[in-house]
Specification:
Blueprint (H helix, E strand, L loop, with lengths): L2 H5 L2 E4 L3 E4 L1 H13 L4 E7 L2 E6 L2 E7 L17 H4 L5 H15 L13 H15 L5 H17 L7 H9 L4 H5 L9 H7 L3 E6 H4 L7 H10 L16 H10 L6 H4 L5 E2 L8 E5 L8 H8 L8 E7 L40 E2 L11 E5 L2 E2 L5 E6 L4
Parallel strand pairs: 2-5
Antiparallel strand pairs: 1-2, 3-4, 4-5, 6-8, 6-9, 7-12, 8-11, 9-13, 10-11
């Protein structure tokens, strides 16, 4: 029900200002608190009270209780100004219901949350997490608990539910709790003969950062660069890496991934400790940049060239004696990385499948793996921009 209609308030500015007696305003503020959205006092001056409710400030103006209002009645018996008043209590009540459902471990209806892309993506992924049978139940329960705690502490409806879930799974704690919990590969012949091995691409720009590229090679790049480059300690994606890429592309300096990369470089996901994503070598031809872009839907940075890393098949299998967890089928939790990610509908396969986005593109089988050092790889191949 509308706040104005239920509590006798008149709308002055939709969602921002209302007129009512002191008792009516007190009643309205209590109702907001009762629905779970705290109305925090901001200011009270000469009969005007302001409250912070979620992400908006609402002003209530007191009038004399004996003041006569326009009571012209609409055909359904509701006064005209009340019938036109803002449906403020609707969003408040919706958020209250949505929050209760999520706290109870349910997926709320989309109509109960703000209509944003992040919320739409988040609800789809939350539904996936509830339905993904490859997630161990104890892991799912723990995620739903952590997710509920984030919802419980929220003072107003979320605008990006997907982003909230991503922060949980890809946090420092979440990396160990929620990533790589899917079905494990246990058959060496399957990796070698069915998948054709496992590969990962790393863009040239990502390789041209401190901790990845050899300091001696970088010093050579600094010597050959027509413009200043930062010290090695400050070399990163945003500072100097692209300049090194341009030197390699132009032929000003040569690049050999076997010679010019550190064997101690860590191959992982976007954040430190995040999973690396590997694809079946049999599913994609990555000997050419354009082919790789169409088959793997890789980002623009890869058009400047990349390094193909071949993972030894045995590394994909669990080996507790050597401290290896092995590769895992991506679950809906892993897929909080990207809203375009899609679960493999075949739950019998120990691999995920990419979600094709381009005409003619086919799904590519993929797995997630704990961070490994570059020295683990059996082969490193540099594929330059515009050719093989």
């Amino acid at each position: 029900m509308p706040l104005a209609l239920v509590h006798g308030l008149e709308t002055v500015v939709e969602g921002r200002a209302y007129i009512g007696t002191r008792a009516e305003i007190d009643h309205a503020v209590k109702a907001l608190d009762d629905t779970g959205l705290r109305a925090e006092p901001v200011e009270s001056v000469q009969g005007t009270r302001k409250y912070r409710v979620g992400d908006r400030t609402i002003e209530f103006r007191e009038r004399d209780a004996t003041h006569t209002r326009d009571v012209s009645t609409a055909s359904d018996g509701v006064s005209a100004h009340e019938a036109q008043s803002l449906q403020l209590a609707g969003p408040v009540a919706n958020w209250h219901e949505a929050r209760l459902r999520m706290l109870a471990g349910e997926v709320p209806s989309a109509e109960l949350l703000p209509a944003t892309e992040g919320n739409s993506q988040g609800l789809r992924r939350l539904r996936d997490i509830h339905n993904d049978s490859t997630i161990p139940q104890s892991v799912r329960d723990e995620f739903i608990h952590d997710f509920a705690e984030q919802i419980r502490s929220a003072e107003h409806p979320p605008e990006d539910l997907f982003g909230l879930m991503n922060k949980i799974v890809y946090s420092h704690e979440g990396r160990q709790k929620y990533q790589r919990k899917g079905t494990k590969i246990t058959n060496l012949a399957y990796v070698r003969d069915v998948l054709g091995g496992l590969r990962r691409l790393v863009s040239l720009r990502a390789m041209c950062q401190r901790g990845m590229i050899n300091p001696e090679f970088y010093q050579h790049a600094r010597d050959m660069s027509p413009s200043p480059l930062p010290n090695y300690e400050k070399l990163d994606w945003m500072n100097g890496a692209q300049q090194v890429v341009e030197l390699i592309k132009s032929g000003a300096i040569g690049f050999d991934p076997t010679r010019d990369l550190l064997s101690t470089a860590v191959i992982e996901g976007r954040g430190q400790g995040d999973s690396g994503w590997y694809f079946a070598a049999a599913d994609a031809d990555v000997s050419d940049v354009r082919k790789a872009q169409s088959q793997l839907a890789i980002g623009g940075a890869y058009l400047d060239g990349y390094v193909v890393l071949d993972l030894p098949p045995e590394i994909a299998l669990p080996d507790p004696a050597r401290g290896r967890a092995g590769a895992a089928r991506p679950t809906a939790l892993d897929l909080t990385l990207d809203p375009l990610g899609k679960l493999n509908p075949d739950i019998t396969e120990p691999v995920g499948k990419t979600n094709p986005q381009l005409p003619g593109q086919l799904p590519v089988r993929e797995v997630v793996l704990s961070p490994v050092t570059l020295s683990t790889m059996s082969k490193r191949t540099y594929v330059r921009a515009g050719g093989k």
